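tool_log.txt
---
The assistant was asked to compare two proteins side by side. It first ran the structure predictor on the initial sequence, then on the second. Raw inputs and outputs are pasted verbatim so the downstream comparison step can read them without reformatting.
(1)
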Amino acid sequence: MLKDSDAPQDSAVNVKQLLDLTGRVAIVTGGSIGLGRQMAEGLAEMGANLVLCARKAERAHQAARELQQLGVKAISLACDVKDQTSVQEVVDATFSQFGRIDILINNAGISWGAPVEEMRLEDWNKVIETNLTGTFLCAQAAGKVMMRQGRGKIINIASVAGLGGAPPELPAIGYHASKGGVISFTKDLACKWAVHNIQVNAIAPGWFPTHMSNRVLERYKELFLSHIPLRRFGNEHDLKGAAVFLASDASNYVTGHVLVVDGGQSAW
């Protein structure tokens, strides 16, 4: 266990310094669109260099080119987070390019809608392997680099769906189960790797309009809004602050935490 004398001493007391990510290196899976792109942009705005990973390489290339306009280095790599070799190649390429890995955002994820009694095993497995096993594989590979460095930040993207059940209108039990698993994984890994000065936290977003959620939001807009105290969905900036906080020195004493960003949905 770390003793007080072993804890990293940070001379920065100014909040701007604590949140500054200049020169840090962040891997963001699923970073080309949606929530991943929003969080990557937030890190870049605070000075972090980026490695954007996505299954569709061209979309990641375009995102990297756009984020370079913020004055940081940004590269894109094709990656299938279900494939251990593919994940290791991303980690190796990142270290080769930058010589360090400071931040990992495990954002890649999918969902599949079907009633429980009709859910095909192959669809269940696809969701679990991407959302939960992919999070494990990326954390494992990047974590080995962070251990050697003696510091690191891992941010797993869970969901309010991982905090409880949902009505029959939302038949996505694989997604809910996977995100609940991500939350438990986050808490356990935080305990395991605290000795290496690696903070492991999760963000649990509520409803944000994305490529994956738009169809559901359009269909059930009024129902969902009635359960959100702020009476709106998340926008293109609402995750930036959470991601920057958990990626920065401002959260050095925060680990094993699930930061809910849902407009109050889970507070009812």
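(2)
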Amino acid sequence: MTSLAEVQRAFTRICFDHEPQAADLALLHDDASRWLMYRRMVRSRLFKMMRNGLPKTAALLGPTRFDAAISDYLAEHAPQTRFIREVVNELVDHALPGWAQDEALPHLADLARYEALKWRVGALEWPTTAPVADELDFEGRPVLNPTVRDLTVRFRVDKDWRSPSRLDGAHRVLVHQKPGSNRVYTYVLNPMGGQLFDAWRESESFAEGARHVLAANERAPDARFIDGMAGVLADMVEQSIFLGSARAPASQSAGPPDPSAPGPDR
């Protein structure tokens, strides 16, 4: 007697294999045309979701090659999530090793990763306990926008997805939402800007982060560095990448306790 688990596995293969197998259709004990209709319905929705999530990648590859990548993903990997939107990112994870080797389309991998990141950020919800920030204070602790995600690219795929120029060094792409809006924004940083971003999101103050970058590059805080840093920071705050600064609590800013001070009554 066929178990329910065997029937489920057969139906999964019918939906996701490159071609449905006669043995699986026979295992379901019903009109094969009915199961083939279900296959078309399931695959149609999945294909549509992935085309919607990666429209420029799909256009760059063309329908035949993009659909073949989806078919390979479904047959070799199959969706591992109950959230249908996640199949977009799963497809990119599955196809990326091959796309990264495409010499005719050297920017294909960057484009697919960029679109997948935008898709993921677009699905984020602004946290109900979002961090509170005061106005920018260079000595204050940086408050990072909680929706910011980033990736490194070698092509400006955010500007030109057909034939973008190759960048002089790896650049960082920041993708995020702004408070009160679910629109997705993009901000690109050159290598020095990327170092500042990393330092600021890990440091106790913007000033401390700048000092770390200066030390790492063995340079002095000359006028060129200060002007460039100020411009990057102003842009990041204007774009809501950093929401501002947070002051240290009074208990932290007051310094260590005086050991000679009297303790509490016992």
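---
observation on (2): Strands lie at 141-144, 149-155, 166-177, 184-189, 242-246. The first helix runs from residue 4 to 16.
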